[in-house]
Each structure stands twice: as structure tokens, then as C-alpha cells.
Design brief:
The structure is a homodimer of 325-residue chains.
Chain A (H helix, E strand, L loop, with lengths): L1 E6 L3 H11 L4 E8 L14 E4 H4 L8 E4 L6 H10 L3 E4 L7 H15 L2 E3 L8 H12 L3 E7 L2 E2 L1 H8 L4 E10 L1 H8 L8 H4 E9 L5 H9 L9 E6 L2 H7 L5 E12 L2 E11 L2 H21 L4 E3 L14 H7 L2
Parallel strand pairs in A: 1-2, 1-4, 2-3, 4-5, 5-6, 6-14, 10-11
Antiparallel strand pairs in A: 7-12, 8-9, 9-10, 12-13
């Protein structure tokens, strides 16, 4: 059994807990929290709830620590810190800062003789794998990534910060015409606006100026101004009834040629009922890989690109060759 | 530069040749043939055409030999034979016999201190990767593989052997209703007949009994009797005009749950203008991996499941992390 610790018990931490239950070779040993452990009620009877202070001793009896924090401020600090004590996994997803994060985790885990796998999830993660496989097989081609339809938590949060907004759910939606052109192998050049639209469901405070809110959303730089955005005002009941889930998904579509006029289109797509549960499931599969690599004496930071697929599977190489190849 | 040799110059060998041209870190050194080398005209000016007898000396100056033979009789003999002399790659695709083939190649390449990667292509190959990634992330689920729309060369050949048939092109076609049910996450049980239909385009000899031919096709055991099959008789001109390519493709669709009622659907699909050129492109990417593994001192047989994606890419780990992750 691979002994798993979870650091952080938000949506992602709960997703990891659910995923561990689906893997019979893994057990959740403890959830570590910065909150008062007594305030936390988890769904695994056999696991403990502990303070992060206990983790900080470096002496917890876990094989892999799955760090479920945010990429903005939590992970850049937490992952290198704990990589110096445990095998660790995270879902760091600020693409531009991955090289720096990798270097920090690599240094810590290498010195500790541990394995640290960063940026596991679906993008970065499963989408990255598919971009690299496709481009390696067909170097003469172009990769397109579409996200959605799904809830962007970053965009929902940005709207919630607007004066007069009580709650928001923002959906990112690929533009069907753009998807069609890419699937047809046209290799089009697409602007940001041509690739995705954004749709906001907003609950406003009583008496708030809805026109002003709508305008503030649509003109918000970085988040909305480069997109065609639709804003729908709904009641709290409607929000709860129709928008309580965190579905997401998307597609990596790669179109390339192997010789003049001979085209191939490769598409990888995800339709996820729950973004955090799927991300948690990816983290758990890579926790298995981290444990195995560590057992073989491997040290340092890795990404999904550095890990052979067989390491993720509970099946042996022999079983995989006989049944899955 | 990785020096490539190609053994066999049929459709697949020509596909590998085209793929090598698309990879600037690789060069085709020689094509080896069982035919008279003088009878062969290839598309790479800088490469030699040689007899397999020269290959048999074990002294050819190549880094990786890509063996482009058939799975029925060529590869079970050729791949272990040449694995004892060179790093080798093949596209062995008789799923049931992979364990035996793996064992044979492993023994030969291990003793020789070389690397042999078997069963590279799209199924086995890219489809296998996607089955294993999906199942590892969501162990509680079901994988469905659909092939087509595309030309099955085995089925086309089977029809050509019928008395009175001059030529045939057989298309395998997934049943849209089955695809829809799987994409909806219904996890249906599907019979062979419910998953695929078969469509034959046949050129018959003058005066042949078309009714008998159609009946012989539709009732042929293993190949057609378990399927709904359509037979169309066409002229030689129509065959040449409309059916000269070897397109193929298909989908691996995996549907699984991460907790009660929370479903996810993962789909990987290929639309290929040319089956042999795409398969050749996969073989070439894995030739790069074989060369790198060999350079690191790795020995023995491998499959696509044993190889980290980064080994396939011409980019460095640093470039991949910065641009593709």
C-alpha cells in the first residue's frame, strides 16, 4: 500500500481523497490542514486530521504528500519546502513560472533524495502529454488548445470582486466555428476572441446597478476585454440549482502533415463533471509513479513528460502488455 | 544526427522514409531490401539501397533499424534476429502474440546490449498509451476502441482472394449510435455488430457472378459474418479515382467515475490521410527514443508504455517545460 498524505482540504484536497478511494493499492493516512484540525470533518474514517505543524517535523509516516494549494502563493513556497522532507506531488499551473518552480523543487528533492512531480492535472498535465506526443510524431504541424465548456474559478473570482456582486459562475466556451476549422486541418491563425467566448451568471446585491456591473465585467482587462462576454443576472436559488458543480474540459487538437498534402488530425478531449475530482485523480496516479521512482532510487523533480506511462498503472508490465497494449 | 536504416520498402517503409525527412535530427542512411537493390528507386538521394545480406553481417553503420515487415510472418522472425545486432523498432500488431514477441526481442537485445522497441504505431501504439493513461487516472471505468472510418488492408486482401474478384477496398466504419452512447458515458455493453459496419468496394472480373461474390463476402467467418456488410461493385476507373488512398483512424473513448455520480469522458481520436505514413511517423519518434535510451546504457525490449514522452521529442527537457507543458 502506498501511504498518502494530503496537504490542504479544499475542493482539490477532497478530489484527491475521492480518488484515493478508487485505488486499492493506496491508502489515505492523514489530511494536513492550516485550520484547526478539530474543525475539519473528512470522508475517510481510517485517516487522521492533523496540523501542518506535525508535517513540518519531516517525520510523518507517509510515502507521498499530495500538496493541494493554489499556484499563486501556496505552491511556490510549499512544494519546495516539503520536497526537502517527503516525496511530493503538486498541480502547479502557472505555465510561465514552471521552469522556476521546477528548479526550486528539483534542488530540494535532489538534496533530500526524494522525488517531486510538479504540474500534474489536465492542463498542465494530460493536455501537455498530448501536445508533446503529437508534436513528436508529426513535427510539421500545429497544436491548438481549447478550454471548456467549463467553469473558470479565476474568472468567477474576478467578477465576485466587483462592487455589488454577491456570486458569479463564469463559463469558458470554445467557439464552434474555430473548433471546426481546426478539426478540418486548416491550421488557421486564431485571435483570442475567435477561440473562446465567456458567459457569466451573476447574483447581484439588492438595488445594485446591473448595467454598471455588466460593463465592468465586459471591459475588465486580461480577464474579459479580449473576449465576447455574455452576462446573465440570476437569483441565488437559480445559482444554487443550476450552477453548483465545477464541470470543465476541453480539447487539444493537433493537425500536421507527414508529406506534401498528407494530413493527419489528432484530437484529445475531456468532458469532466468535476474539475477538482479529475485533477485529484491525475495527482493520485502520479503519486503511484513517484513512489515507484523513489523506490528505484530516482531523485529530483519530474514532470508528466519525464514519466513512462507504465509507472502510473497499478498493473504490472506483463499485464499491461497482455491486456492494454 | 540519428542514423536510420529501413528494412523493407513497402507502404510502411515509404512512410518511414517520408517521416525521417520531417525530422532534422535524423538521417536515412540505407534502405535494406530482399529484392534486387538495383530494382528499387527510393526518394532519398543521400541514402543507399542495399541487400539484407549486408545487414546480416551486423556491421552496418546505423543507430536504429526500423523494421517494416508484416506481423504474421516477417516480424516474429526479423525483429529478434536484428535485435541481436542493432537497436530496432517495429510495429508488431498481433495483440495476442505481443507477450511472446516481447520475450523474444528482450532476450536478443539484452544479450546484445541494444534496445528494441516493439509494437509502435497507432494501435498498438498511440491508442495503447491512451487506454493506459485513462485507466490509470480513472480506474473505475471502461475503455472503448473504435476503428475507422478507414481501409482495413487485411479485410481488403481477404475479399481479393474470392474467385472472380479483381480488386477490393474494405472500409471499417464505427456505428454512430454506439459512438454516441459511449460519448454520453453510458458504458454500454456492445456486440461486435453494434460497434462497426463494413463497406466493400469491389471490382469483379467480367462475367463474374456478382450475387455469389456478395454472398461469399457477407458470410465469410471472422472477417465479415459478425458484421453488417455492404458490398458495392465499381469499375477499375472508379477504384483508382476514389479509393487509391489508405486513410484510417478511430477513437479510444474512456468513461469513468471519480465518485458516486461524478463522470468523466476522455476521448482520443485520429483522422489519418495515410495509415502507413502516420505509423511511419510514430516509428521514427520511437527511433529517437531508442537511440537516446541506448546512449544512456539501457538494454532490452520496451514498448510505448515503458518510455517517457520526453524521449520522443527533439526538444530538450528545458524547452519542453518552458513551451509545451
Amino acid at each position: 500500500m502506498v501511504k498518502i498524505g494530503i496537504l490542504g482540504y479544499g475542493n482539490l484536497g477532497r478530489g484527491v481523497e475521492a480518488a484515493v478511494k478508487k485505488n486499492s493499492d493506496m491508502e489515505l493516512v492523514a489530511v494536513y490542514t492550516r485550520r484547526d484540525p478539530k474543525s475539519l470533518s473528512i470522508k475517510t474514517d481510517t485517516a487522521a486530521v492533523k496540523s501542518t505543524a506535525e508535517l513540518d517535523t519531516g517525520k510523518e509516516d507517509i510515502d507521498v504528500l499530495i500538496i493541494c494549494g493554489g499556484s499563486a502563493t501556496d505552491l511556490p513556497e510549499m512544494t519546495p519546502k516539503y520536497a526537502a522532507m517527503y516525496n511530493v506531488i503538486d498541480s502547479f499551473d502557472t505555465h510561465a513560472k514552471i521552469p522556476q518552480h521546477f528548479a526550486n523543487v528539483d534542488k530540494a528533492s535532489r538534496e533530500a533524495g526524494k522525488v517531486g512531480i510538479i504540474s500534474c492535472g489536465w492542463d498542465p498535465g494530460m493536455f501537455s502529454l498530448n501536445r508533446v506526443y503529437a508534436e513528436s510524431v508529426l513535427p510539421d504541424g500545429e497544436a491548438y488548445t481549447f478550454w471548456g465548456k467549463g467553469v473558470s474559478q479565476g474568472h468567477s473570482d474576478a467578477v465576485r470582486r466587483i462592487d455589488g456582486v454577491k456570486d458569479c459562475r463564469q463559463y469558458t466556451i470554445p467557439v464552434p466555428a474555430a473548433l471546426d476549422r481546426v478539426r478540418n486541418g486548416e491550421n488557421p491563425e486564431l485571435t483570442t476572441r475567435e477561440k473562446h467566448t465567456r458567459e457569466c451568471f451573476v447574483t447581484a446585491e439588492e438595488g445594485a446597478d446591473l448595467e454598471r456591473i455588466e460593463n465592468e465585467i465586459k471591459t475588465m482587462p486580461n480577464y474579459f476585454s479580449d473576449y465576447d462576454t455574455t452576462v446573465n443576472f440570476i437569483t441565488e436559488e437559480e445559482m444554487k440549482r443550476d450552477h453548483s458543480g465545477l464541470p470543465h474540459g476541453g480539447s487539444v487538437i493537433y493537425s500536421g502533415t507527414s508529406s506534401d498534402g498528407t494530413k493527419h488530425v489528432i484530437e484529445y478531449s475531456l468532458k469532466l463533471d468535476s474539475n477538482p475530482e479529475f485533477t485529484g485523480s491525475v495527482l493520485v496516479a502520479y503519486a503511484r509513479a513517484a513512489f515507484r521512482l523513489y523506490s528505484e532510487g530516482v531523485k529530483g523533480a519530474k514532470t508528466v513528460l519525464d514519466i513512462a506511462p507504465a509507472y502510473l498503472s497499478a498493473k504490472s508490465g506483463k499485464e499491461l502488455r497482455a491486456h492494454c497494449l
